[in-house]
C-alpha cells in the first residue's frame, strides 16, 4: 500500500513538472500558436459549458466502443482457431502478414470509397485495422494452451462451453488483457483519422476544423480531455479487470 | 460393467532415428465389475499410453477397447482419471475444480460437501491449488475423479513423490472409496509393494514394447495386508513363486 501511495506521489510531481515546463516554454515563445496551460484550461471549460466537447467525445467513444467490440470478437475467434489448427494457420499466415502491413489510411480510404461516407464504413475501417493485431496476440496464447488440461477435459467429457470458459479463456486472459490495452490505444487514434476524413462529428472532425482555423488552444483542450477519458477507462475498467483475472496467481 | 482391452499394436514416431517405436504389443485383458487391477512394470513400458487408450485420449492404435454395461445400468459409463500430475486448474478454487466436472444435478446432490468432508478439505474449499501442498492437490484430484461416481477409475501413478505417511493416508482414502462404491480400478505403479497392497489382481508388463508377462490374482485379505510382517512375507512369497515380476525392473 505504501509503495502505491508513493508511486502516486511521484506521478503527481512529474505531472506538475511537465506543466511547469510547458508554462515556461509558452511564456518564452509568447505566441498565439503556443498557448499557456491556463488558456487551454479556459477553452476546455468553455467548451464543456457549451456541451460541445461532450457531444463530440460521446460520438468518438461510441465509434471506439463498437469497433473495439467488433475487432475483439472476430480477432479472438480467428486467433483461437489459428492457434489450435496448424494447417489453417499455415494457410492464412500470409493473409495475416498482408493485413498487418496495410497502412490504416489505405483501409480507411478504401472503405469510404467502396461503401460511401457512412457510419458503418467508418467503423468497419477501424475494426479491419485492429483485427490482425488481436489475431496475432491471441494466436500466440492459443498455441501455448496446456495440453494436460485439455486431456483432463476430454477424459471427464466436459462440454465445449465448459472447456472454453474454464480452461481456454483463463489461459488466454493475459493475452486478452494485452490486446485489449494495445487495442484501445490503437483504435482511438484510428477513429480520429476516420472522423477527420469522412464524418461530421467526433473529436477527429473537431480537430480538423481547429486545424483549419489554427486554433491550437482548442486542439490541445480536446486532446487533453480525450486522453483523460482514455485514462479513466484504463484505471477504472482495465486494471481492475486485470487484477481479477490474475488473482489466482500467488 | 465390463472392460475389454485389446491392443494388438501401438507405435509412436520417434524423433531420434526417424523410425517407429513400438510401445505396446498384443496386450489383451478383461476387467470385471469391482476389480482392482494394478498394472506393474518398468518405466517406459507403455503403461500411461495404455491408460490413455482406455480413457479415449489416444485413438491411434491397432485394436479395440470396449466398456460395456452389464445389464442393469442404462447410461453412458463414466471414467474418472487421476493423472500423475494432479492437473487441477490453477485459476479455479478447490470447490470450482470439482464443480466443473459435475452436472447441475450432481452439484445439487451435495456430493461436493460430502467429498470435501471425507477428504478433510472443507476449510480449503475456496483455496487455489497453488496454495495447497502437493499431497493435498493429489487428494483434490482424487476427489474430482470420485465425484463423477465413475464406473471405472483410471489412475496413473497417482501417489508418487509423497512421503510415506501421506501415501498411506491416500491409499486408505482410495481403498475406503473402492470398498464402498465398488468401481473397477486400473492403477499404474512401478512399486510392487504398492501394487500388492491395493490390488485384487496384478498385471506385470515387460519393458518396451509392453507385453503382459504375468496375470496373477492377489488373494491376501485386506485386513491382513495392514500387518507389516504378514504383508512382507506375502510379498516375498509371491515374488518367489513368480520370478518374472522382478525380471525387468
Task: Please provide a written account of the structure.
The complex is a heterodimer of chains A (250) and B (249). Chain A has 250 residues and is an all-alpha fold. Helices cover 87% and strands 0% of the residues of chain A. The two termini of chain A are 17 Å apart. Chain B has 249 residues and is of the alpha/beta class. In chain B, the strands form two sheets. Chain B has a six-stranded mixed beta sheet, sandwiched between helices. In chain B, strands 2-1-4 form a three-stranded antiparallel beta sheet, with helices on one face. The longest helix of chain B has 18 residues, at 164-181. At the A-B interface, helix 7 and helix 8 of A face strand 5 of B.
What's the order of the H and E elements of chain A?
A: HHHHHHHHHH
Count of helical regions of chain A: 10
- Topology, number of strands of chain B: 9
Give the class of chain B from helix and strand content and strand pairing.
alpha/beta
Rg of chain B (CA only): 19 Å
Task: Summarize the model shown.
The complex is a heterodimer of chains A (250) and B (249). With 250 residues, chain A is mostly helical.
Write the layout of secondary structure elements.
The complex is a heterodimer of chains A (250) and B (249).
Chain A: H1 2-29, H2 37-50, H3 52-84, H4 86-101, H5 104-115, H6 119-143, H7 147-155, H8 160-198, H9 203-213, H10 216-245
Helix pairs in contact in A: 2-10, 3-4, 3-6, 3-8, 3-9, 4-6, 5-6, 5-8, 6-8, 8-9, 8-10, 9-10
Chain B: E1 2-13, E2 20-32, E3 36-40, H1 47-54, E4 62-68, E5 79-82, H2 94-100, H3 104-108, H4 111-118, H5 134-147, E6 152-156, H6 164-181, E7 184-189, H7 192-198, E8 201-205, E9 212-217, H8 222-225, H9 228-241, H10 244-247
Parallel strand pairs in B: 3-7, 3-8, 5-6, 6-7
Antiparallel strand pairs in B: 1-2, 1-4, 8-9
Helix pairs in contact in B: 4-5, 5-6
Throw out a few tags for this protein.
heterodimer; A: mainly alpha; 10 helices; 87% helix; 0% strand; B: alpha/beta
Amino acid at each position: 500500500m505504501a509503495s502505491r501511495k508513493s508511486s502516486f506521489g511521484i506521478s503527481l510531481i512529474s505531472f506538475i513538472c511537465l506543466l511547469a515546463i510547458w508554462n515556461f516554454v509558452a511564456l518564452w515563445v509568447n505566441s498565439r500558436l503556443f498557448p499557456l496551460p491556463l488558456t487551454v484550461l479556459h477553452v476546455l471549460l468553455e467548451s464543456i459549458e457549451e456541451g460541445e466537447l461532450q457531444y463530440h467525445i460521446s460520438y468518438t467513444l461510441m465509434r471506439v466502443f463498437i469497433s473495439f467490440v467488433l475487432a475483439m470478437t472476430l480477432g479472438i475467434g480467428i486467433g483461437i482457431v489459428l492457434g489450435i489448427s496448424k494447417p489453417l494457420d499455415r494457410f492464412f499466415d500470409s493473409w495475416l502478414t498482408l493485413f498487418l502491413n496495410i497502412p490504416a489510411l489505405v483501409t480507411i480510404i478504401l472503405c469510404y470509397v467502396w461503401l460511401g461516407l457512412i457510419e458503418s464504413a467508418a467503423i468497419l475501417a477501424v475494426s479491419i485495422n485492429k483485427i490482425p493485431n488481436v489475431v496475432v496476440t491471441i494466436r500466440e496464447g492459443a498455441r501455448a494452451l496446456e495440453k494436460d488440461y485439455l486431456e483432463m477435459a476430454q477424459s471427464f467429457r466436459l462440454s465445449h462451453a465448459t472447456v472454453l470458459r474454464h480452461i481456454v479463456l483463463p489461459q488466454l486472459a493475459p493475452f486478452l488483457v494485452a490486446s485489449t490495452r494495445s487495442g484501445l490505444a490503437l483504435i482511438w487514434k484510428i477513429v480520429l483519422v476516420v472522423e477527420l476524413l469522412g464524418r461530421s462529428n467526433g473529436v477527429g472532425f473537431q480537430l480538423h476544423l481547429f486545424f483549419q482555423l489554427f486554433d491550437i488552444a482548442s486542439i490541445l483542450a480536446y486532446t487533453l480531455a480525450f486522453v483523460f477519458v482514455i485514462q479513466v477507462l484504463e484505471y477504472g475498467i482495465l486494471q481492475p479487470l486485470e487484477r481479477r483475472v490474475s488473482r489466482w496467481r500467488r | 460393467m465390463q472392460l475389454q482391452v485389446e491392443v494388438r499394436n501401438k507405435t509412436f514416431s520417434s524423433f531420434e532415428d526417424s523410425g517407429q517405436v513400438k510401445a505396446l504389443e498384443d496386450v489383451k485383458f478383461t476387467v470385471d465389475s469391482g476389480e482392482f487391477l494394478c498394472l506393474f512394470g518398468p518405466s517406459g513400458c507403455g503403461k500411461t499410453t495404455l491408460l490413455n487408450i482406455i480413457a479415449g485420449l489416444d485413438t491411434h492404435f491397432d485394436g479395440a477397447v470396449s466398456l460395456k454395461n452389464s445389464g442393469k445400468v442404462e447410461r453412458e459409463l463414466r471414467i474418472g482419471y487421476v493423472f500423475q500430475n494432479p492437473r487441477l486448474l490453477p485459476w479455479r478454487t478447490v470447490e470450482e475444480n470439482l464443480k466443473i466436472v459435475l452436472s447441475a444435478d450432481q452439484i445439487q446432490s451435495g456430493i461436493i460437501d460430502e467429498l470435501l468432508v471425507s477428504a478433510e478439505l472443507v476449510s480449503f474449499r475456496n483455496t487455489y491449488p497453488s496454495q495447497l501442498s502437493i499431497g493435498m492437490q493429489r487428494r483434490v484430484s482424487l476427489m474430482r475423479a470420485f465425484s463423477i461416481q465413475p464406473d471405472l477409475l483410471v489412475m496413473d501413478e497417482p501417489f508418487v513423490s509423497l512421503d510415506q505417511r501421506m501415501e498411506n493416508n491416500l491409499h486408505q482414502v482410495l481403498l475406503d472409496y473402492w470398498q464402498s462404491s465398488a468401481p473397477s480400478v486400473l492403477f499404474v505403479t512401478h512399486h510392487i509393494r504398492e501394487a500388492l497392497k491395493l490390488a485384487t489382481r496384478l498385471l506385470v508388463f515387460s519393458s518396451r514394447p509392453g507385453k503382459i508377462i504375468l496375470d496373477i490374482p492377489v488373494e491376501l485379505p485386506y485386513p491382513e495386508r495392514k500387518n507389516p510382517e504378514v504383508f512382507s512375507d506375502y510379498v516375498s512369497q509371491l515374488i518367489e513363486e513368480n520370478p518374472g515380476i522382478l525380471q525387468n525392473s
